[in-house]
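Colleagues,

For the teaching module next term, I've prepared a clean inverse folding example: a structure given as tokens, and then the sequence designed for it. I'd like students to try predicting residues themselves before seeing the answer, so please don't circulate the second half yet.
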């Protein structure tokens, strides 16, 4: 017992250090999943494709599992910390709250509240809602009139775009050919229509017409526009190829 009393402060200090490290790891993984390994809709918005993001070979859900395990380990360390400091906690608590009945009521309340916060999420049923795309979320500074649309449409040449969103029965050879053709064309969700047009020597209006986007959104990122107007990046890539080499039409 004397030996335990002698090493107990050191043991408590080790627990405190481990708690601090685990707590920082839990916070760090939270930041990782919030700002780096983005959820699917954010990946689609930024990169313009349904890509999977990884860190050290693990995706967002796998890091989420590690985050949960670390949180449970932190809870275990917290319980140990309370157990080893129980005498001190009781002593301070008795001085703060003189009446025994109030102390008991408070401890019962804290115990019930803690259990509720920990296990209530396992008992709830999620709300199920249909996913709806919200079109035209961004208001244009100068809304297009019917006359403006007609003028733009008449001034642009009609060039058919062979979209990669063909029938499900299309063979893999044709899909491979499309991928091979668009390999050298860099178009992703972080770019804007204006940036793509400037890069490949085209007008913003013709690119906007190809994907069905109003030209005044030329400075919006393609990832955001794609979410609202439901086009594919390959629509732009294939159009660029057709403009650069008309024989590929």
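(Answer key — instructors only)
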């Amino acid at each position: 017992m004397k030996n335990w009393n002698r090493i107990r402060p050191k043991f408590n200090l080790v627990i405190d250090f481990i708690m601090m490290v685990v707590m920082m790891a839990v916070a760090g993984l939270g930041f990782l999943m919030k700002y780096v390994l983005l959820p699917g809709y954010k990946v689609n918005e930024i990169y313009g494709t349904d890509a999977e993001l990884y860190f050290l070979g693990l995706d967002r859900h796998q890091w989420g599992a590690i985050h949960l395990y670390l949180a449970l380990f932190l809870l275990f360390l917290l319980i140990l910390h309370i157990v080893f400091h129980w005498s001190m906690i009781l002593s301070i608590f008795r001085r703060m709250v003189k009446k025994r009945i109030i102390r008991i009521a408070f401890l019962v309340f804290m115990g019930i509240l803690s259990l509720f916060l920990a296990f209530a999420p396992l008992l709830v049923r999620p709300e199920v809602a249909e996913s709806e795309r919200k079109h035209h979320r961004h208001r244009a500074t100068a809304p297009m009139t019917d006359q403006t649309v007609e003028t733009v449409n008449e001034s642009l040449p009609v060039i058919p775009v062979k979209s990669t969103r063909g029938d499900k029965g299309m063979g893999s050879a044709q899909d491979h050919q499309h991928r091979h053709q668009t390999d050298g064309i860099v178009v992703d969700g972080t770019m804007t229509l204006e940036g793509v047009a400037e890069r490949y020597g085209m007008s913003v209006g013709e690119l906007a017409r190809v994907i069905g986007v109003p030209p005044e959104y030329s400075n919006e990122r393609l990832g955001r526009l794609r979410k609202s107007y439901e086009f594919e990046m390959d629509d732009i890539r294939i159009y660029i190829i057709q403009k650069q080499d008309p024989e590929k039409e």
